[in-house]
């Protein structure tokens, strides 16, 4: 396991080694260590202390929580928003609050574990359609004509960086009277004209019967989950969700960092432009090296291998050459082994070229033995 001895930026100190180039994690806009976020987090820490030590429904709701929720709603172009302890809870909260609207669940077979963990235990029917395959989903929907379906998927898949076919899923949802939930943990701040995620990417922003669960712990650079939507939905979460109402409110520095990040993202759209440029540069280089990967435009770039030992070997070779990119085989079901490279807007061109150069060296030196 990698043990960090520093915060995450474009470089990192890990396993007591000198600084390494960091192409891991989900710090897409490079904000996790941004000086302005840190400064505002410290300010809030001094004003409010470490923890409000109360749930949102009793005495845990502070002025800055409300300010953050207002900002998130504005950022998302929605009426209202709620924040809660972690993005992981978001799917569970939505599935619980929308429970009256569905009696069967159709999930992509590669969904994140926060979705499978979030499925209520009293659902009579849960079916998994083939990964990113709307035709298979439609077959399953057709085979359950009497059910009230709910379709659920990652927006950007956590391991592979693929964008789910949300436009086609939404058409099917409309056709079969289904509710659609998209877990946009990796798409918030990344996809769509304003960084509002996969629905915006597919021009489905604010479409009816489409819900998103999101997090501030990745591109936004802070921590904690959120859901934005119309007044009815958000009020229902405030009233009914014990995950929201009965768990300790997000801590002050986290709330302040979230607020600060949203302002920064709004003021600096070039953060996303740089992210996209870096992504293109790295993806192009990786394609030129003929690694097995996904095509697409997201900053999660998987290198696929048939054997676990090949992925682990490459990850170790990268680390020996000053680069962190982990070999991962969790938390989704997959038969392939992945070195998961993630790119950020704070990476320099030199770092990206160094990564490509190192991948090329590995290819030339070792790859023939493994295939
Ligand atoms: C698709 C997906 N959903 C939800 C989460 C959980 O979000 P959080 O880490 O903010 O709890 C993650 C990863 O952490 C994720 O990859």
Fold and architecture overview:
This protein has 371 residues and is of the alpha/beta class. It folds into two domains: 11-23 and 269-370, Aspartate Aminotransferase, domain 1, CATH 3.90.1150; 35-267, Aspartate Aminotransferase, domain 2. The chain is 40% helix and 16% strand. The protein is built from 13 helices and 13 strands. It has helices at residues 35-48, 63-76, 88-97, 113-116, 134-142, 166-175, 198-201, 231-240, 242-245, 252-267, 270-288, 308-320, 349-370, and strands at 11-12, 20-22, 80-84, 104-108, 125-129, 149-154, 179-183, 210-215, 225-229, 300-305, 323-324, 327-328, 337-342. The strands form three sheets. It has a seven-stranded mixed sheet, sandwiched between helices. A three-stranded mixed sheet has the order 1-2-11. Strand 6 (149-154), helix 6 and strand 7 form a beta-alpha-beta unit. Helix 1 runs antiparallel to helix 10 (252-267), helix 11 (270-288) runs parallel beside helix 13 and helix 12 packs across helix 13. The longest helix is centred in the C-terminal third of the chain and has 22 residues, at 349-370. It is globular. The two termini are 26 Å apart. Residues 86-88, 112, 114, 154, 158, 183, 185-186, 215, 217, 225 line the site of pyridoxal-5'-phosphate.
